[in-house]
Amino acid sequence: MTTGIEPRGSAGGGLIRLGLIDNDRMLLATTEGWFAANAPGMRIEHKASTVAEYLALEPADDLVLLDLRLDDSTRFVDNISRLVQYGTAVLLLSAHTSRDVKLDAIRAGAVDFHPKGDLVGLVQAVADIAANRYVLGQELAFAISRDRGPGSPDLSERQTEAAMLRGRGLQVKEIAKRMNVTPKTVEGYLERVKAKYQDADRPYNTAAQLRDRLREDGAEL
């Protein structure tokens, strides 16, 4: 998973430059205006209705907010891949989608999925990505936990969430705060994760080794 964004634009001052790709022209204008009025430090620099149209602008944005379904018959996984190859992080937006679609988006290179229309939450998500503190939502963490290949342990949703946070270097107390549980509960999750990897003949002893195991199982950290 992308773990942060480095400012690419020339605006300076810590400004987070955003691209927005969506079929709905009215939504493009509305979202741009909302960010301008409510999200200091962020600015939608480029808007387009297709990825091709967006890339033709030769943008230097830090993060692209990409609608799942565009009217040009392109596949969302291909759109994500094109944007990632161009060099920008991608946050996928949609009102309704399945865990499988979300998982496909992550595997294509998206930072994560965010509900379309939740502008308040979207601003927070962008801020978290920029500050390198963004983690997978519980639902997507659970989807990854169920997408097991040969030798992958069967982790619960909460075990996966704790493991992802530990793999990113957070300490037990920090994980407990994020998950709204006690440190003892987190320790229990992590002990079970370690035991399950041991049972799968893929042991680890450090947070860095846990991160490697999670990456081997398809997690983007």
CATH topology of the largest domain: Rossmann fold
Low-confidence stretches: 7-12
Oligomeric form: single chain
Q: Whole-Å distance between the termini?
A: 4 Å
Average pLDDT taken over every residue = 84
Rounded radius of gyration (Å): 18 Å
Could you give the order of the helices and strands?
EHEHEHEHEHHHHHH
Number of strands: 5
Description:
This protein is an alpha/beta fold and 221 residues long. The chain folds into two domains: 16-130, Response regulator (Rossmann fold); 138-216, Arc Repressor Mutant, subunit A (Orthogonal Bundle), CATH 1.10.10.10. The chain has ten helices and five strands; from the N terminus they run E-H-E-H-E-H-E-H-E-H-H-H-H-H-H. The protein has helices at residues 25-38, 51-56, 76-86, 99-108, 119-130, 138-146, 157-167, 172-179, 183-199, 207-216; strands spanning 16-21, 42-48, 63-67, 89-94, 112-115. Strands 2-1-3-4-5 form a five-stranded parallel beta sheet, sandwiched between helices. Helix 3 (76-86) packs parallel to helix 4 (99-108) and helix 7 (157-167) packs across helix 9 (183-199). Mean pLDDT is 84; it is low at 7-12.
Annotate the secondary structure layout.
Layout: E1 16-21, H1 25-38, E2 42-48, H2 51-56, E3 63-67, H3 76-86, E4 89-94, H4 99-108, E5 112-115, H5 119-130, H6 138-146, H7 157-167, H8 172-179, H9 183-199, H10 207-216
Helix pairs in contact: 3-4, 4-6, 6-7, 7-8, 7-9, 7-10, 8-9
Domain HTH luxR-type: 169-196
GO molecular function: DNA binding
InterPro entries: CheY-like_superfamily, Sig_transdc_resp-reg_C-effctor, Tscrpt_reg_LuxR_C, WalR-like, WH-like_DNA-bd_sf
